[in-house]
Amino acid sequence: MVACRPLGWLAKYFAFLAPLACTVGAAPPDDHRVVLYYQTGLGTDTTHVSLLPLIQAEPTISVTHVLIAALHIIDDDGGIHLNDNPPDDAIFDTMWSEAAQLQAAGVKIMCMVGGAARGSFQRLDGDAASFEKYYAPLHNLIGSHNIQGMDLDVEESFSLSGVIRLIDRLKADFGSDFIITLAPVASALTEGGGNLSGFNYFDLEAQRGSSIAFYNAQFYFGWGYAGSASDYESIIDDGFAANRVVMGFLVKKLLTATATVAVLSSPDNGSGFVALNSEAPVLQELVTENGNFGGVANWEYFNSLPGGKAAPWEWASWMAEHMVAASKMARREVSSSEALWRGVRKLGRRVRREAKKSYHNYIA
Question: For the whole prediction, is pTM greater than 0.85?
């Protein structure tokens, strides 16, 4: 059902904005995922952060995917580490037990490989013999712990043929239901945007999109901004479907970064953090404008707001509740000024996209 109201003088002078004055019933939600990255507090050698409240503390289970981080492919000590220890080290026994309980409750349990510590994908990018050597420990881990998927966080140079080989092998070994996701910086999903991975995500989507479940795009550290719908919309404008792009953002501001991966430990400083009260209207806009909005992901679980370290599981229910509420709303009627701003923003993105195409055609 569509209902329109006139824009008055705006329609007279800005005819291209007319469609934005319409109120349209929101499309049914497709798959509003709630993805948690889980690194700090994995082991019993430090203060363990339990996963069980995610399935026990709330009336309904809100989290859809838990990504255990971070796996690193190495040259010794069994060929693979989960952070600083082999994955089968006794310090992870409690974590694996809890992960199995979440899995039994319907939550997808995955692992993330790569991240800020480089080397894993370089090792997986060699000749056939080298690939088999470094792939074997990853294969064994997936089988021994019934891992349901792998998140490829490629923050180093990795060839397109290399990532395709890895994706194809995972699918061949573990079946079509095995979940493969990637975690690019958000700008890598826009034409000509910044990219840490080496290969082009548009080329990967064209060649192996059917094997990739979704992308956990990083909207922080200057690669994208989650405090507005604009950067997410740019990705959709450039060709990625909304149900394939999960908006990933910081749950607390960054204080320090270890050699392994960024650790979010303080609300006092950082880059890219968006407070929840600022995120709520962004989620409302994204869900109502895109009924198949892909969902949200956080870095990372242990200190997630609003509950913080005392109740980090509250982030998942907060996000799920806001996305469900937005999906049940009819698209709200926008004011003339907001319609103008959205129209100008969309026109600007269209101009940017066409300029990129013209430039690429010119240099081709």
Answer: no
Which amino acid does the sequence have at 168?
Answer: D
Residue type, position 223, single letter: W
Residue showing tokens 């061949």: 172
Question: Which helix (H) or strand (E) covers residue 299, if one does?
Answer: strand 295-299
Nearest in space to 73 (alpha carbons), one of 32, 115, 134: 134
Domain 29-329 has CATH 3.40.50.10490: no
Question: What residue ranges do the domains of the chain occupy?
Answer: 1-25+336-364, 29-329
Q: C-alpha dihedral over 334, 273, 120, 208, to 10 degrees? A: 0
DSSP state of 228: S
Give residue for tokens 């080290």: 89
**CA max distance for the chain:** 70
168, 211 contact by CB (below 8 A): yes
- What is the residue-level pLDDT of the chain in tens, covering all 364 positions? 233 333 333 333 333 333 333 322 322 333 589 999 999 999 887 789 999 999 999 999 999 999 999 999 999 878 999 999 999 999 999 999 999 999 999 999 999 999 989 999 999 999 999 999 999 999 999 999 999 999 999 999 999 999 999 999 999 999 999 999 999 999 999 998 999 999 999 999 999 999 999 999 999 888 998 888 989 999 999 999 999 999 998 876 544 332 222 222 224 323 566 778 888 889 988 998 888 999 999 999 999 988 999 999 999 999 999 999 888 875 555 567 766 776 787 787 778 767 766 765 665 5
